[in-house]
Amino acid sequence: MTLFNQDKDYIKRVNLALSFIDTHLNSNVLSLESISEVASFSPFHFHRIFKIIIGETLNSYINRKRLEQAAAALIHKKDLTVTEIAMQSGFSSNSSFSRAFKKFYAVSPSVFRTNHPHKFSKISTIESKNGQEKSNTEQYICNINNHLNWVTMYATIEIKTLPELHLASVTHIGVNNIENAFERIIKWAIPQGLMQDPETKLVRLFHDSFKITTPDKVRMSIGVLTEKDFLVDADIQKTSTTPGKYIVGHFEIPIEDFEKSWNSLYIWMHDNGYKKAEGAPFEIYQNDMRQHPEGLAVVDFHIPIV
């Protein structure tokens, strides 16, 4: 769902609310009253508008984001206890966190951490044909090796320290109709003189992770890199990446290989002892794949690391 399909003034104000929620997710200031004030709506009107535009109530959205943040911490922050993660994710107690987490993910936080150290590391036992239990470790190792081989064959990987990058962007939620968001930002950028600049790059920044967020709710910013100052224009907003160290994987691939390439790059990260940082991963497109002789995207995948 591309948010510019809705009333543009409403989109601008809901985007302000989403940014406020992101910034204060771990605090106790996320009341309907405080968020609606940021968005310049009455609480009653904001509650209705938020659900229409985002597709879920404000409380459901905040609870989901907190649980997904906790799930990410369970995966990536092994040094923290479940209780510490609960407190850092805005829950008042470990018991309330555990109940909410189990209701959302169908397993307890401890079981989730054990079974999901990362997407491709779930080692279980299966029953062999002769009735004996057989470890699935060999299949796991084969899966890991396949992804490492893939990223070795199709990517050039570097570790880079990057400054804050600035985008003019639109918000898109879910995996359907993403092309509409790209068309919207390009349509906006052309009269700004940005698309005529060969240095202009399209970017897709992920505010959520497909590992812990259902595809229809993953929020992205689709934009163009620019240092040019511009006025926020209804659904066009200013977005920035987090400065710091990144794993950068340079790929030349068809669009259907994006998921495998991302997964392989995360496997490479774990295999080489890096840990994901708090910032959002993003893609920078180096070409127009429609003009590539084989229809391939030349794209750099960025994972923030500590």
TrEMBL record:
InterPro entries, per database record: AraC_E-bd, GyrI-like, Homeodomain-like_sf, HTH_AraC, HTH_AraC-typ_CS, Reg_factor_effector_dom_sf, SmbC-like, Tscrpt_reg_AraC-type_HTH
Entry keywords, A to Z: DNA-binding, Transcription, Transcription regulation
| Segments forming a coiled coil | none
Return any one Pfam family short name: HTH_18
Q: Does the keyword Signal apply?
A: no
**Claim: Disulfide bond is one of the keywords in the record:** no
Any idea where the HTH araC/xylS-type domain is?
Answer: 15-115
PANTHER family, from UniProt? TRANSCRIPTIONAL REGULATOR YGIV-RELATED
Protein name listed in UniProt: GyrI-like domain-containing protein
Q: Which organism is it from?
A: Algibacter miyuki
